[in-house]
């Protein structure tokens, strides 16, 4: 696979319960200029088989590395949301030759055994008894998840099983209809991709053991050697806390002298690119332009 002349490939890694269908806005922006854009599906998502083994960030990064080596992308700008954010970080640590830069959208940095916030609990409450979770943009849903411990295995959100059960038998159209109600500011394309992802989950994803805590993700940034753009939500509405963002800046140094560009997005929740697309795309454009410029300098 050959990238457009002078254009660094862009690799997209989705969050838990999302899929490669969840990047329409980003893909439309970069597909048209001849740039290679690759959206990968994690195991158990988007129809990809789920092995009978623990669901770990290390395994997700290994899967991504195999896919990118097979595609021959070379060093890429790796963009990750939530679970995809920590997968991208793990990829930069274990396969640095594949990563030119990172863009982390509210990555799933944890505190102890608890997922730091709602993660990808934007699986809306489709069950009549409220078995699902609140929409990602709801502050109440975020606050509830922030205090919810993993359900017996390291890092698995307690909401996951009920959310997947609530999706059973639902069509894309049914999920999309509820998604438009729960997330009225999202574009139709984003709602459709989100709904396609929810109906393509392997239901066993909630049954296998999870391990999201093999690294202390913020501290692990000390070993990252590429530029990082960190997009964070309104405090209290996303995963990454102000304390974590400040620690990331201490470890990486702030651009331009250091490696970290922190882009807080006021008013946005966990799904920043869906809730604040202009701010998100401006940050992504800057990261892409910088990666292209570094590649041109060799």
What does this entry look like structurally?
- With 298 residues, the protein is of the alpha/beta class.
- The chain has a domain of 199 residues: Rossmann fold.
- The protein is 38% helix and 12% strand.
- It is built from eleven helices and eight strands.
- The strands form two sheets. The chain has a six-stranded parallel β-sheet, sandwiched between helices. A two-stranded parallel sheet has the order 3-6.
- Helix 9 links the parallel strand 7 and strand 8.
- Helix 2 crosses helix 3 and helix 6 packs across helix 7.
- The longest helix has 21 residues.
- The two termini are 19 Å apart.
- About 14% of the residues have low confidence.
Broad structural category: alpha/beta
- Tell me, what is the CATH class of the domain at 10-121 and 211-297? Alpha Beta
First and last CA, distance: 19 Å
Helix tally?
11
Q: What is the topology, as strand order, of the major beta sheet? A: 2-1-4-5-7-8
Largest sheet: 6 strands, parallel
User: What sort of overall outline do the alpha carbons produce when their principal axes are compared?
Assistant: globular
Average of per-residue pLDDT values: 86
Instruction: Give the full name of the CATH homologous superfamily of the domain at 10-121 and 211-297.
Output: Alpha/Beta hydrolase fold, catalytic domain
Cα Rg: 18 Å
The overall strand count is 8
What is the H/E string?
EHEEHEHEHHHHEHEHEHH
The assigned CATH architecture of the domain at 10-121 and 211-297 is 3-Layer(aba) Sandwich
What portion of the residues fall into strands of 2 or more residues? Answer: 5-15%
């Amino acid at each position: 696979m050959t990238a457009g002349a002078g254009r660094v490939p862009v690799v997209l890694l989705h969050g838990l319960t999302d899929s490669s269908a969840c990047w329409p806005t980003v893909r439309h922006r970069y597909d048209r200029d001849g740039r290679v854009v690759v959206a990968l599906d994690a195991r158990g998502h988007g129809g990809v088989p789920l092995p009978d083994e623990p669901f770990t960030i290390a395994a997700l990064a290994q899967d991504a590395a195999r896919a990118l080596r097979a595609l021959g992308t070379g060093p890429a700008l790796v963009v990750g949301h939530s679970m995809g954010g920590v997968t991208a970080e793990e990829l930069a640590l274990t396969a640095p030759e594949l990563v030119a830069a990172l863009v982390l959208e509210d990555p799933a940095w944890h505190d102890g055994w608890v997922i730091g916030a709602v993660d990808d609990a934007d699986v809306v409450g489709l069950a009549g008894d409220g078995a699902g979770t609140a929409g990602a943009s709801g502050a109440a849903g975020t606050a509830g998840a922030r205090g919810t411990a993993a359900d017996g295995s390291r890092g698995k959100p307690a909401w996951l099983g009920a959310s997947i059960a609530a999706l059973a038998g639902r069509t894309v159209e049914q999920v999309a209809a509820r998604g438009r109600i729960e997330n009225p500011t999202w574009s139709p394309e984003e709602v459709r991709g989100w709904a396609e992802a929810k109906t393509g989950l392997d239901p066993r994803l909630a049954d296998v053991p999870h391990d999201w805590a093999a690294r202390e993700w913020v501290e692990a940034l000390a070993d990252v050697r590429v530029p990082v753009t960190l997009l964070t939500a309104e405090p209290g509405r996303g995963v990454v806390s102000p304390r974590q963002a400040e620690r990331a800046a201490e470890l990486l140094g702030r651009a331009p002298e250091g490696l970290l560009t922190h882009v807080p997005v006021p008013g946005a929740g966990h799904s920043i690119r869906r809730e604040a697309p202009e701010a998100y795309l401006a940050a992504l454009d800057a990261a892409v332009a910088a990666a292209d410029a570094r590649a041109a300098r060799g």
